[in-house]
Design a protein that fits this description.
- By secondary structure, this protein is α+β, with helices and mostly antiparallel strands.
- It has two domains: 6-100, no CATH class; 120-266, no CATH class.
- It is built from four helices and eleven strands.
- Strands 5, 6, 7, 8, 9, 10 and 11 form a seven-stranded antiparallel β-sheet that branches. A four-stranded antiparallel β-sheet has the order 1-2-3-4.
- The radius of gyration is 36 Å and the shape is rod-shaped.
- The chain crosses the membrane at residues 99-118.
- This is Zinc-ribbon 15 domain-containing protein.
Length: 268
């Protein structure tokens, strides 16, 4: 398939140059400067290519400056013509279409590609950090979690799960002792800014201890589930009333799913 294109010139505005004579016919006040919009056209205009100027005599049609001639060849023009060209270019207000040059689109594509690469690297780094911190927990680690509200002291309306923070206070074998933040995150938690309203200070967390199974937290098939061990009183009651092997923990939520946009585990 063959594609045809043209470079077109559309006049935008024109102005007579006062007190200037035509070098051919000698008539005064007959020179006119015209400002054109240059654009690339293939069936329809699709790229602006800047602006061009032309100077010609309205009396004899002699062209002093062709639209394709560069303005920097100033030695070919009189001071009045140079000044008229500068003024018409400066005083004419360009539209958004006239600002869309071919290189503008190239820069836009380059910018989008660069942003995509940077964003991909951020996601990769966040994913690696999350995996490293998850496999090797340390006291003080903060986890972004989605917890069923009945297992927290957070008051919510119409939320199936609440987004909040867990802070790791102690590690004892398979048991991670954590405390829950008193507030919940805003929005959906897919941006770091969604979590900024939650304080990381110790006094922002409840005193109640959640004993979480580290082994089950490492379960990637179920997307990092959070299983809380029953306390001794509850466990004794369950075993007393159970005929078979009683469960020792209950599912209360999971780590927040972000797709790499945020750090699920923060390490001070």
């Amino acid at each position: 398939m063959i594609y045809y294109y043209q470079i077109k010139h559309t006049p935008l505005t024109a102005k007579l140059i006062p007190n200037e004579e035509c070098p051919v016919c000698g008539k005064k006040n007959s020179l006119e400067v015209v400002l054109y919009m240059r654009y690339l056209r293939s069936l329809v205009p699709f790229f602006g290519m800047g602006r061009a100027t032309e100077v010609y005599c309205t009396s004899c049609d002699h062209v002093i400056k062709d639209p394709s001639a560069p303005f920097y060849a100033k030695k070919n023009y009189s001071p009045a013509i140079i000044e008229a060209i500068k003024n018409i270019r400066t005083n004419h207000k360009r539209t958004w279409w006239q600002l869309i040059y071919p290189w503008t689109v190239c820069w836009a594509i380059l910018g989008i590609a660069t942003y995509g690469l940077i964003n991909q690297e951020i996601k990769k780094k966040n994913t690696l950090n999350n995996e490293e911190f998850l496999e090797h927990p340390m006291v003080g680690d903060i986890y972004k979690v989605a917890i069923y509200p009945q297992f927290t002291g957070i008051k919510t309306v119409g939320k199936q799960q609440v987004l909040t923070l867990f802070k790791l206070k102690q590690i004892n074998g398979d048991t991670l002792s954590m405390v829950c933040n008193k507030e919940h995150a805003i929005n959906y938690g897919y941006e770091e800014s969604d979590w900024e309203n939650l304080s990381r200070n110790d006094d922002a967390f409840e005193t109640r201890i959640y004993k979480i199974s580290f082994k089950k937290l490492m379960d990637t098939i179920s997307e990092r589930p959070i299983w809380q061990y029953y306390n001794k009183t509850t466990l004794d009651s369950i075993r007393k009333n159970s005929r078979g092997n009683a469960a020792v923990s209950q599912y209360i939520g999971q780590l927040h799913r972000s797709g790499g946009e945020v750090n699920i585990i923060e390490r001070p």
